[in-house]
Amino acid sequence: MPAPTVLTIILNYKTADMTLRSVQAARIAMQGLPGEITIVDNDSQDGSFENIRDHVEAERWEGIRVLRSGHNGGYGAGNNVGIRAGMSDGTAPDFIYILNSDAFPEPEAITELYNFLQTHPKTGFVGSYIFGEDGDRHTTTFRFPSILSELESAIRFGPITKLLKSYRVPREDIVGTASVDWLAGASMMMRRSVLDEIGLFDETFFLYFEEADLCARARTSNYSIHYVYESRVMHLGSVSTGMKTWDRVPDYWFESRFHYFQKNYGLTYAGFATLVHLSAGSLHWLRCKLTGKTRDVSPNFLRSMAKHDFANIIGSITGTTHNQSPELDTKIGE
């Protein structure tokens, strides 16, 4: 019986040089595995596609394709282009490995994920231990968002935060290989047969919450999600999105958050989750005002959440759509 094949997909958006560094690291980590690498340029329109294609041809890298998405539909949509393309010979891969363009797997990182899926047939997705340039671990293991997690994240008050710690979305407590609710997509390998069963990334999400939604569908179909500590990947983080320099949270984050709650729990639940967050966040704001403490929350965060979510609620009730048509180029502070 032939060994399972793996297709590595790297999505590029205006980071050609960084993407090529990621590809080089992936090439080394793919050695000995039956598979290919597909680079998808997500409509960069800055010469990225041509630069990457020309570099691949000049270096005579085998087993690497460079594709155009044709439209920047976001993270999930771009990766779906690569998934649907499959292998260059027209076959479908057994495993699909999603790697961020600013992530660099260590030599054994991809093999560790590959081996875990082979030996755990009821595991649908696996993700890596992610660390930064400074060596510190990045949190990439999570619980599913809920009404109580909204309260925990917004209230920021010691006794309540401690009481609700088991509902906190980030899982910093995990120290070894373990089952989790969902994983960040910076380095994640997926069983293709599971995607055939549950579907690909939901392209309604432009950016953020798409991995949580995909993992939720896998968990609903009784597949486990595992964090594999032995698979190690260095991640710069947010190079193409500019997240580290946000002056305020962009529209598409609010849109994705509300869509996640509405899709997975219904409109009433989504509305109540927003009400809880706004109420708890307002109490935190008032407490900081009275005590003189500095709020570590983006300016106008609560106002933006209220605006977007109430528009979505009204749109869902009246049957009208609320579309932001987001673009990563948007000057977030304007």
From TrEMBL:
Q: Which residues form the Glycosyltransferase 2-like domain?
A: 13-197
Q: Name one Pfam family in it.
A: Glycos_transf_2
Give the UniProt keywords, A-Z: Transferase
Q: Recorded GO terms, molecular function?
A: transferase activity
InterPro entries listed in its UniProt record: Glyco_trans_2-like (IPR001173), Nucleotide-diphossugar_trans (IPR029044)
Its protein name is Glycosyltransferase, GT2 family
Which species is this UniProt entry from? Answer: Litoreibacter ascidiaceicola
